[in-house]
Amino acid sequence: MRYQISGKQIDIGEALQAHCKAEIEGVIAKYPGRPTDCLVVFSKDAHEYACETVVHLSSGLSVQAKAKETEIYAAFDAANEKMEKQLRRYKRRLKDHHRERPNPVELSGGSAYILAANSDNDADEPETLQPIIVAEMETRIPSLSVGEAVMQMELAGVPVLVFRNEKQANGVNVVYRRDDGNIGWIDPNTTS
After folding, report:
1. What local confidence, expressed as pLDDT, does residue 95 receive?
2. Phi and psi of 140, rounded to 5°?
3. What is the pLDDT of residues 34-85, one digit of tens each?
4. Crossing angle of helices 146-156/91-100, nearest 10°?
């Protein structure tokens, strides 16, 4: 497994890198999925350290966790604990996912844009109705079943997931977490 352990404008020592590798290997060894690479990023926000971990599994799914603590080791340990909890929660489904799918999840490319937020004063009329694009990035759109998409959304800890429905030829679908805690599914091919 490849590791990329780095810090945003902070120095990460050899001891912390060795601690991260050992702890992640200990967690991953318990669960199926054969990880291919791991990304750990540390940053500092005022008096707190933030740690974000992302582990990519060979099946195409990824597990993501974030945590903030006042000490850098505690931030990593909290993120690692969240990741272990997610893997424990989805252990059976990950095994079934691997058994049912002979090939890894197919990924197709797409563009993602970050748009500028509205100004503080909403009463002012904007100069143009075109949004200001702050960032443009490449993103991957996985080809999954609806159940796998919900699992991936939970594992990644994101509120929305866009995916290609593998049961439909060109079906781009969306699953999202609703305000009432349930999961919503948008399937444009069933509307007429």
Report:
1. 61
2. -110, 135
3. 778 899 999 998 899 999 999 887 767 788 899 999 999 999 999 999 988 8
4. 140
CATH of 2-96, one of 3.40.50.300, 3.20.20.70, 3.40.1180.10, 3.30.160.100: 3.30.160.100
Q: How far apart are CA 87 and CA 98, in angstroms?
A: 14
CA–CA distance, 192 with 183 (Å, rounded to integer): 22
Q: Indicate the domain borders of the chain.
A: 2-96, 105-190
The C-alpha atoms of residue 41 and residue 49 are separated, in whole angstroms, by 10
Q: d(Cα 130, Cα 153) in Å, to the nearest integer?
A: 30
Higher per-residue confidence, 100 vs 36: 36
The CATH class of 105-190 is alpha beta
Question: What does the block give as tokens for 132?
Answer: 């200001």
pLDDT digits over 87-99, tens only? Answer: 887 776 666 554 5
The contacts of residue 156 (CB under 8 Å, 6+ apart) are 62, 63, 64
Identical fold, 2-96 and 105-190? no
Exposure string of 26-50, with b = 16+ CB inside 10 Å and e = fewer, is ebbeebbbebeebbbbbbeeeeebb
